[in-house]
Amino acid sequence: MWYSAWYTVNAPTSPQNLWTDWSIPYVPRVLGQFRVYDSGETAVIDEHIQMLTSAGVDFIILDLTNHIGTGFILQRAQAICSRIVQWNSTHPTKMLKYAVAIGATQWSGDPADIETEAGNTWSWFVQTYGINNYFHWAGKPLLVANDQGVRAKWNGLTPKPNSDNFTFKWWNGTVTSNSIPVAEYGNYVGWAFTSGALPSSEAMMVLPGWNNMKGASPIDRYLGGVEGGFYQAKGWNIVLANNPKLVVINSFNEYAENTAIAPAKTDNLANTAGTNKWSAPDIYWNLTQHFIAQYRSLPTDAINNNPMHIVAGNYGVNGSIYYSNGSSVCSIPFIELYQAMGSPAFIPLYAVPTLPNSGGCNYPPGYFRVGTVIYYSNGSQYCHMNSIPQNWTQFPALPSNMPFNGDC
């Protein structure tokens, strides 16, 4: 869960009140009241820790992407870590861990900044607050770094002893299904996934909506007229089908870019795409708890820890579309058949489901023509027409898996 640590209220130094400085219209609910808060408030930190752990969140990603050494943010991030250490010491079976996200490279373009900030993270967060409180992935502490044209350069940077202490995941300002290779989907866990969650067995990210208020095309929280529709249809539904090892949510409280799910009043929002008013302060927090519980209920196995969770519906895999009834799967081999089925929405998967494969899907009921010959399908078998109907659909091939019943 991405977590913002930069909020200030009545601070002795600038920014004294980041809520007003950044014109943030949300009014969070903290400690039983709707009010703004300082990210360093101990009671608020403790409440957030309790909320997150009760919801089943394992770790937060502290957003230090605007330079890890920015004093007022660093101070508050370390206050949060201190309270997490205290919580974990008294809740050994309900621990919350933290990781750090860095991003100086988004301005400098210098891959050496990743190495420098990795050293800062190791000193200021891993060593200072204990390696057992820092979230690990693939056997090392996790560090989320900015990749905006610098990752390839960083790969070639040697030596990089600070970076070698960490497992890396990456973030970009905008991530789409076409902006990174399919094989890399599981290595990106932030920021604005405008295509929705990207299918992977490794790691996936979900977000409820987004508007950075800087001219980028926003992500509307509504989809198909449904509040929270993007979060569900373009996020959690894809996650639940793919059942990845790691799920990252953007975000708990990033109100400035409108990705927050923590309870808040939204009366002052513009109610436009990406800055949608909420029907209730808890709506996205309740949705988040619901989907985390669903994710945690999915089966796992000792081999890959994440078998797919396939229910009846349509699925897309690398440009191909399949239909599953929940127990088997068939392919929709060409676009004309997909259109004849009503061009149904589909959930992207990282691989073809490991279910019995019946080959090509049955053609839907109706008349169809292949070449110059017309046939009729009742949905389970097809026959040859001796008369010419008024309307038919042109298909490039006969069904591969339907019984032929001769003349109709």
Distance between the termini: 59 Å
The fourth-level CATH homologous superfamily of the largest domain is Glycosidases
Average per-residue pLDDT, rounded, comes to: 94
For the report, how would you describe the main beta sheet?
7 strands, mixed
Task: Give the CATH architecture of the largest domain.
Answer: Alpha-Beta Barrel
CATH class value of the largest domain: Alpha Beta
Count of DSSP helices? 9
Return the CATH topology of the largest domain: TIM Barrel
> How many domains?
3
Q: What structural class should be given to the helix and strand makeup?
A: alpha/beta
Residue stretches low in confidence (pLDDT < 50, at least 5 long) are none
Estimated helix fraction: 10-25%
Describe the global form. elongated
Number of strands: 22
Strand content: 15-25%
Please state the CA-atom Rg, rounded to the nearest Å. 25 Å
Summarize the structure in words.
With 408 residues, the protein is an alpha/beta fold. It has 3 domains: 2-296, Alpha-Beta Barrel (TIM Barrel); 310-357, no CATH class; 362-408, no CATH class. Helix content is 24%, strand content 23%. It has 9 helices and 22 strands. It has helices spanning 18-21, 42-55, 71-90, 105-108, 112-129, 151-155, 229-242, 283-296, 335-340; strands at residues 2-3, 27-30, 33-34, 59-64, 97-102, 136-137, 140-146, 167-175, 188-193, 203-206, 246-249, 264-265, 313-317, 320-324, 329-332, 347-348, 357-360, 366-370, 373-377, 382-384, 393-395, 404-407. The strands form 5 sheets. Strands 1, 4, 5, 6, 7, 8 and 9 form a 7-stranded mixed sheet that branches. Strands 16-13-14-15-17 form a 5-stranded mixed sheet. It starts with a strand and ends with a strand. The mean pLDDT is 94.
